[in-house]
Write a structure and sequence with these properties.
alpha+beta, six-stranded antiparallel sheet
């Protein structure tokens, strides 16, 4: 009998030492839906840290990446169906990140307006309400809990993408 009790105590002790799964987190900030989903202790390969804003005719999203990187996506509904613009970005620092993401979103709206005037400047203004507070919150979440990967499995940082913009050397 004591052997079974010792085994049970050892079993319970070993399971108590296992790391708890990371808690998923969602929050509304300034009209944006923020989420930190799928991270596991020591393995953030499936982690998705994002902020999304839907307004009539547009859905804007930003997904934080490892290090100083992220992806901006703009989906637009309008005259001839749906268009989507996506760009992977790398940042020098937080100030550069917010500026770069804002510029990319403005670029996406401008490009879609060339195709369809139904998505107006007012639509863009509506979509961007609360952006600064939401973006600062996402940056803080990643600062508080940086991406962590198992040894030898770290994903490559996303390559910078011009979001359809041509580099000067490609304009010849």
């Amino acid at each position: 009998m004591p052997r079974r009790i010792s085994f049970l105590i050892a079993l319970l002790s070993s399971t108590a030492a296992l790391p708890a799964p990371a808690a998923d987190r969602t929050e509304q900030v300034g009209g944006w839906r923020l989420s930190d989903i799928g991270g596991k202790p020591g393995n953030d390969l499936d982690r998705d840290v994002a902020m999304v804003r839907k307004v009539s005719g547009a859905e804007i999203s930003y997904k934080a990446g490892p290090g100083r990187s992220g992806t901006v996506s703009g989906k637009f509904d309008g005259c001839n169906g749906q268009s989507e613009y996506t760009a992977s970005l790398e940042f020098k620092d937080s100030a550069h990140a917010i500026k770069s993401v804002r510029e990319e979103i403005a670029y996406d709206f401008a490009e879609f307006r060339k195709e369809c005037a139904a998505v107006t400047v007012e639509t863009e203004k509506s979509a961007m309400e609360g952006f600064d507070k939401a973006f600062e919150t996402i940056l803080q979440w990643v600062k508080d809990k940086p991406f962590v990967y198992p040894p030898n499995e770290a994903p490559a940082a996303p390559a910078p993408d011009s979001g359809g913009k041509m580099a000067p050397e490609d304009m010849t």
